[in-house]
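User: Could you go from structure to sequence for me? I need the amino acid at each position, not a summary. Structure tokens:
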């Protein structure tokens, strides 16, 4: 569906072409919001997979109708819902000229003990179990082809080479695994793990985006199917 040559790093200084005809999905930003805004403003549409950072003033440079993001576990949940670029907890975003993307925010912080409540860590970094149940129901109702989340299903962790710590307290990977068990989309794009992964697993192409890297989709060439 997608190919590795569609992955573009912000740190790649080569000249990009025809960005205004493309949609880009971007990995973790971790506070580099000025560089992120410069990276995506040339694109027709963008979606960032979470961990934007703790402040969102640089996003004012971007049209909130065309440039969206979801929350991760390095986001400021005191102010995130005041930012018009934020999509919210879960749901569907219809990307013009592309189609529907189902999304869900959140992940568990492995480094939470070294962070400060209300400054660098927020208790609601994950959905509650009740909210996760509602998200699962919505996902199964929609049966999406394309999914974008911050974290990934539990069984995908070994593919990105990351152990699943404190599994019993992590709500997000389990909810996403339940979704995947019941409906397998064509593609599932996520961040959180800071690794590059592009692999077909049980008929779904999983794409993990590294920090400040984006998956470019050419809207003029039907690139939803990886065509060039």
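Assistant: Here is the amino acid at each position, in order:
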């Amino acid at each position: 569906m997608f190919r590795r040559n569609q992955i573009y790093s912000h740190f790649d200084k080569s000249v990009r072409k025809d960005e205004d005809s493309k949609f880009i999905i971007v990995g973790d930003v971790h506070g580099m919001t000025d560089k992120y805004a410069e990276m995506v403003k040339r694109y027709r549409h963008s979606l960032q997979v979470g961990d934007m950072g703790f402040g969102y003033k640089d996003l004012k440079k971007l049209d909130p109708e065309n440039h969206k993001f979801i929350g991760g576990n390095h986001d400021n949940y005191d102010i995130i819902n005041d930012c018009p670029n934020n999509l919210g907890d879960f749901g569907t975003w219809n990307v013009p000229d592309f189609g529907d993307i189902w999304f869900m925010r959140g992940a568990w912080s492995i480094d939470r003990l070294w962070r400060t409540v209300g400054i660098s860590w927020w208790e609601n970094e994950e959905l509650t179990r009740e909210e996760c149940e509602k998200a699962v129901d919505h996902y199964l109702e929609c049966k999406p082809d394309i999914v974008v989340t911050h974290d990934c299903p539990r069984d995908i962790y070994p593919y990105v080479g990351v152990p699943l710590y404190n599994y019993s307290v992590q709500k997000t990977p389990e909810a996403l695994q339940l979704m995947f068990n019941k409906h397998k989309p064509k593609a599932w794009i996520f961040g959180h793990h800071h690794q590059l992964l592009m692999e077909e697993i049980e008929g779904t192409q999983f794409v993990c985006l590294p920090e400040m890297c984006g998956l470019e989709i050419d809207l003029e060439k039907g690139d939803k199917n990886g065509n060039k």
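One structural detail worth keeping in mind: The domain at 4-9+20-225 is CATH 3.60.21.10 (Purple Acid Phosphatase; chain A, domain 2).
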